[in-house]
Amino acid sequence: MRKPVKFGRLSLLLLFIMMAALLTGCGQDIMVFDPKGPIAKDQRDLIVIAMVLCGIILVPVLALTAVIVWRYRDKKGNKSSYKPNWSHSTIMETIWWGIPIVVIVILGAVTIKYTYALEPSKPIASEQKPIVVQATSLDWKWLFTYPEQGIATVNYLQIPEGVPIKFELTSDAPMNSFWIPQLGGQMYTMSGMAMTLYLQADEVGKYFGTAANFSGEHFTDMRFDVHATSREEFDKWADGVKKTGKELTAEGYEELAKPGRSGEHFYSSFPDGLFQKIVTKYSVGGSHGAHKASGE
């Protein structure tokens, strides 16, 4: 009878060791805890505050569970207090109801504050004028159009650091989700709708961008690099694409929009009003029923 008990304890010990090892290995690669922009920093702070508040309840409960299981285990000669008729303690009731209620109130207040501050379409306070980037999710690739620069890219995004970026998001394929973890949380892209998301990179660097929604066979290929550079380098890059890139025609876009994987592409121009045509593509008459991006 003793062998199964020892085997069970050993199994639990190995399970805890494996879980700790996995958590330790993954922790250093969690990009949301390494923010590089004001939106991502506030979101990181909210996550940390929520974790700490939840830990105030979770950690003592788990610790007490372990203590109770160990202290009151079936053991020969166990002298722990045994009170089969015990039913109530005002002090304990106050503790296990009072603390969670206080934590929930604090968590609710903090969440309301951050939710308002992090409203996606709310412009980022800055002396720099925002740059507009229109992102369209396709099967299975991302099309980025820069209306102010007159250029377009596929699966490649370059932005100037320290400058707010006004992303206008839509889809010409199944619903997807636009996500740059180190700059901010995800925003869904949907046909017939244009959503607005403000992000900003505070540091020069290369960041990971991806589609965060299952959208078919090759959805894992919907990844793109985000290059945050100085404003001078960004302007130089945009001028270079304008001079050396190929033209994205209406026919070229129709071909690009067909389901299939794609590498990085750069276009010196794109059809006028392409983004708005994509947004209103499925509406009656092609111009009604769409939710336009704020400011349009």
TrEMBL record:
InterPro entries with a match to the protein in the record: CcO_II, CcO_II-like_C, COX_ARM, Cupredoxin, CuRO_UO_II, Cyt_c_oxidase_su2_TM_dom, Cyt_c_oxidase_su2_TM_sf, Cyt_o_ubiquinol_oxidase_su2
Pfam family, one: COX_ARM
Keywords on record: Cell membrane, Electron transport, Lipoprotein, Membrane, Oxidoreductase, Palmitate, Respiratory chain, Signal, Transmembrane, Transmembrane helix, Transport
GO molecular function, one term: cytochrome bo3 ubiquinol oxidase activity
Gene Ontology process terms (BP): ATP synthesis coupled electron transport
CDD domains hit by this protein: CuRO_UO_II
EC number(s) stated in the UniProt entry for this protein: 1.10.3.-
Location of this chain's protein in the cell: Cell membrane
Membrane-spanning residues: 46-73, 94-116
Membrane topology field: Multi-pass membrane protein
Domain Cytochrome oxidase subunit II copper A binding positions: 128-240
GO cellular component assignments: plasma membrane
Catalytic reactions on record: 2 a quinol + O2 = 2 a quinone + 2 H2O
Domain Cytochrome oxidase subunit II transmembrane region profile: 24-122
Broad class of the protein's primary localization: membrane
Keyword Signal among record annotations: yes
Role, per record: Catalyzes quinol oxidation with the concomitant reduction of oxygen to water. Subunit II transfers the electrons from a quinol to the binuclear center of the catalytic subunit I.
Family affiliation: Belongs to the cytochrome c oxidase subunit 2 family.
PANTHER family in UniProt: CYTOCHROME BO(3) UBIQUINOL OXIDASE SUBUNIT 2, CYTOCHROME C OXIDASE, SUBUNIT II
The protein's name: Quinol oxidase subunit 2
Lineage summary: Bacteria, Bacillati, Bacillota, Bacilli, Bacillales
